[in-house]
Amino acid sequence: MGKQANERLSKLMVYLLCLAGSVVMLIPLVWLVRSSFMGLSQIFIFPPEWIPNPWHFDNYPKALTTIPFLRYFVNTLIILVPSVIGTVATSALAAYGFARLRWPGRDIIFNILMTTLMLPYAVTLIPTFLVWAKLGLINTYWPLVLPSWFGGGIFFIFLLRQFFMSLPKELDEAATIDGANPLQIFWFIIIPLSRPALITVAIFSTLNAWNDFLGPLIYLNDSRQYTLALGLAEFTGLYTSQWHLLMAAATVVLLPVLILFFVAQRYFIEGIALTGSKG
Question: Measuring CA to CA, how many Å separate 107 from each of 87, 167, 268, 279?
Fold first, then answer.
């Protein structure tokens, strides 16, 4: 009886800690949403008011008309859709080569690529910009889309490689006996079994493209090409900032991300849980 009581007490403590952590993590989201329904003078009042009084529902139409929201949304999709497709396709191919195929120097090359994870983004920023400038592609979407079609990033390759290595190799051997080549094995066996991991990569790459601020800021000079992340910055001025409109616009920008997660959370969690650690 004492052991059961201790186990229940331990579970209760874990639940309470999770609940406390959830509340802490939700405070910024709650602050964002409540501020989107407040006037400018109400947002930073102390002590803070958590319930708007009065409710400013007109913040949303004002926010969406202050900037060309629809144009920025379309621009974001122009970058996001091909980037996600390229990331999933090429990272899966690269991961398949590192996980299931044998070729000289495979592990050495993979380890070298893994070391690039330690390089901060700022280190490669200037050389990368100079390359795109020499190619004459500044102020276009190409610098934001093309890199995703060349492997999709070592993190995604690593994630899929670990998942592919957890699949039984007997499947490859059986398919080879039946006359399948490596590309057919990849398409008809590995891809169908790896749907959770591929969806996980798609979610991560979608979030990266949707939230990317620094990339468009560096490569896009024409305001007509701005993305939603850059568009939000237009609510902050030199002397005054329209925080109430910024909060409303940020809430609208956040909604697709929340919807995406809730729709795909089962595959997302499954993909993370099933990603093996087999080296």
Answer: 22, 19, 28, 10
